[in-house]
């Protein structure tokens, strides 16, 4: 029997899908991925691993679930992940799902599926998070040349707009020995780059006494691993002591995804973020001093409740000043149960969209500036995908996409001189 997965959301969710696929394969099932419009065999099982970070994620989930049921009337449909965990009653009411699970106790999926296949009794089982990290493991990251590796779960922050702490529980960290064993298996499977990820990655070790630098060093020490990349980072957790350790690790990719959210101090306070723009700018300057060609990438939210034109203008100026190598820009999304959802002066959708366009223009220009400065430089590129003309696309350590004619296989690293920059990628020649 084949179990088909569709994953919504972040790197942690994608990792957990790989881990659930492994559990099912070890239990005798075949696994694969499915996309909207997919029609499974009569006895197929569809698993939707959900995200609930924005209202839009929930809307996409409901639409996907309706289509999956319409296109696969006989299939067993499993809904799991962050949406049921954060909103159990609403998830239980989604009748198109035969099995509804949260994102805790992922290991129990095979048993719950087998039980359902025997009894055909609708199952809704969403246990609360515990204080223990749920050990899961992957042996491959199907369809990718870099492996996302989860090392932390949960968040203790409660930023005023965010539903994630309600979906993911409190900070829980993975044991370093467990991490080492997984990275060894991935290196043996040919992975050269590992992306360490978590719900609040920089909170790693708060509950166990280890530090993110320990996880980076243990990963980098595994034979065969050429690069260690970090997922999203909370600026105020990036202490000088941590930077000292990270700067001493030659395999660490100099790309730092420092979540900014707003370039205006008053808005940051309303968001309950834990830094000021001055502290953020000082951190960026410190990273650029320590890491040559450091790429600062980020997430910025526009249209937070009561964000005035002046406050938004401050964000535009700040984004220009920092000079981001890449920025994910998204409109504030009202999340039920969060303090921001109850705030007055919610911004109209059209105004949010207009602000997102204005900020994108600023950040596209800073990205172009960062990538154009690479022309003439020699960089290493991890080969990932090949087009019909044999040209490879891959990424530099600072996560710039590069296209190059090269001999090799996916996962190989080649040395490339950057010759030009186009809108979506740089071009280069192998040295
Ligand atoms: S740090 Fe803030 S935005 Fe990030 S997951 Fe935690 S509560 Fe959400």
Q: What's the structural blueprint in terms of helices and strands?
A:
Layout: E1 2-7, H1 11-26, E2 30-33, E3 45-50, H2 55-71, E4 76-81, H3 82-86, H4 88-92, E5 99-101, H5 109-119, E6 123-125, E7 146-153, H6 164-168, E8 172-173, H7 176-188, E9 193-198, H8 212-220, E10 227-230, H9 240-247, E11 255-257, H10 265-270, H11 277-290, E12 295-302, H12 309-322, E13 326-331, H13 349-372, E14 378-386, E15 391-395, E16 401-405, E17 413-421, E18 426-430
Parallel strand pairs: 1-2, 1-3, 3-4, 4-5, 5-6, 7-9, 9-10, 11-12, 12-13, 16-18
Antiparallel strand pairs: 7-8, 14-15, 14-17, 15-16, 17-18
Helix pairs in contact: 7-8, 12-13
The protein binds iron/sulfur cluster (SF4).
Describe this structure in words.
This protein has 431 residues and is an alpha/beta fold. Helix content is 34%, strand content 23%. The protein is built from 13 helices and 18 strands. It has helices at 11-26, 55-71, 82-86, 88-92, 109-119, 164-168, 176-188, 212-220, 240-247, 265-270, 277-290, 309-322, 349-372, and strands spanning 2-7, 30-33, 45-50, 76-81, 99-101, 123-125, 146-153, 172-173, 193-198, 227-230, 255-257, 295-302, 326-331, 378-386, 391-395, 401-405, 413-421, 426-430. The strands form four sheets. Strands 2-1-3-4-5-6 form a six-stranded parallel sheet, with helices on both faces. A five-stranded mixed barrel has the order 14-15-16-18-17. The protein has a four-stranded mixed sheet with strand order 8-7-9-10. Helix 8 (212-220) links the parallel strand 9 and strand 10. The radius of gyration is 22 Å and the shape is globular. The model has no long low-confidence stretch (mean pLDDT 95). Bound molecules: iron/sulfur cluster (SF4). Residues 155, 157-159, 162, 164-165, 199-200, 234 line the site of iron/sulfur cluster (SF4).
